[in-house]
Amino acid sequence: MVELTEVTKYYGAKRALGPVSFEIEKGDTVGILGLNGVGKTTLLRILACGLRPSSGRVGIDGLDVLENPHEVRKRVGYLPEVPPVYGDMTVRDYLAFVGRLKGMTGGSVAERMPVVEESTRIGEVADMPARQLSQGYRQRVGVAQAIIHEPDLLILDEPTHDLDPVQIMEMRAMIRALKDDHTILISSHILPEISQTCDRLVILDDGRIVASGTESELEARLFASHRFSVTVRAAAPPVPAPGPLIRGVAGVNGAEPVGAARGKAAEAGTATFSVDGANDVRAEVCRALVEAGHDVIALARADRQLERLFVGLVGGEAD
Predict the structure, then answer these.
(1) Residue 141 · residue 91 · CB < 8 Å
(2) So what's the pLDDT on residue 309?
(3) For the segment 115-156, what is each residue's pLDDT rounded down to a tens digit?
(4) How far apart are CA 251 and CA 266, in angstroms?
(5) For 108-112, what is the mean pLDDT?
(6) What b/e readout covers 2-13, taking b as 16+ CB neighbours within 10 angstroms?
(7) Distance CA 110, CA 119 (A)
(8) Topology agreement, domain 2-213 and domain 223-307
(9) Superfamily name and number for 2-213
(10) Cβ neighbours, 10 Å, residue 47
(11) Which of 95, 163, 246, 314 is 20 to 30 A distant from 273 in Cα terms?
């Protein structure tokens, strides 16, 4: 669906991007991660035919973006960080205008409009001037203009920019629903957004790709061990202490003592333990604790995986 080969972008003598090479298969949802100024928006604008690359080849759906930019634009929907909404137009008129710019007929726009309004949940503001919209609705309208022409590739630059927590959850749910009909490329500074919506990650640093793959693939490549936390209900002696039981499970390379579990009942405590590589010993740990007389209340990863990946790949200090 998308293929970049040795793509660069220079502004004068300053290199903003590249060389970068990667592919996106049809139906994938890929997240672009990186610190400010590493070239994420430059990359997205090149894919959306808003910038010409300085060198390299960009292909979308078999078309070269330099040789067939107009045909490529028909296949791409793009939401920049600031939604391109005209304040004096009503939402419905604006979407019809964008549809016609994308080569749609009046009839096809009218047929498509109810579907777009329903999928982005903007029906109740469709007749309002865009200047009267809240930031949440402006972002939804931004997504609506990006999908009005049913593009194969949907590019979203910081889709939850300036949204409140409820609006962020709604936007994530909308993106997940759009995955059924579009190949999606997302750039974001909000790490949970990438983790919860994307199948694969591309991490940029200094304009170059430093890693790509699924979150679990990158984690296995970078980290030799993973941490888990297990919460148990305290048991009176002679039931053995949880720590030694956990350390006795094959594959566990360390366990910290049980401490008070935040947000749990007073009698509950939480221990953390680490395992080597891709070992999954959660069932064995639970079995050892239950057979010794402990009640296991919860078991989950203690790692903030994506944060660890991001810091490990682009530098900086972990909090």
Answers:
(1) yes
(2) 64
(3) 999 999 999 999 999 999 999 999 999 999 999 999 999 999
(4) 30
(5) 94
(6) bbbeebbbeeee
(7) 15
(8) no
(9) P-loop containing nucleotide triphosphate hydrolases (3.40.50.300)
(10) 23
(11) 314
- DSSP secondary structure letter of residue 90: B
**Is the model's pLDDT at 233 over the cut of 50?**
yes
CATH of domain 223-307: 3.30.70.100
The CA distance from 8 to 25, in Å, is: 21
pLDDT at position 260: 45
- For residue 223, the model assigns a pLDDT of 62
Q: Which residues have a Cβ under 8 Å from the Cβ of 14 and sit 6 or more positions away?
A: none
What angle is formed at CA 51 by the lines to CA 61 and CA 85, rounded to 5 degrees? 90
Domain ranges of the chain: 2-213, 223-307
Rounded CA separation 282/301 (Å): 10
Q: In which element (H, E) is residue 278 found?
A: none
CB–CB of 117/110 below 8 Å? no
Neighbours of 57 (CB within 10 A): 15
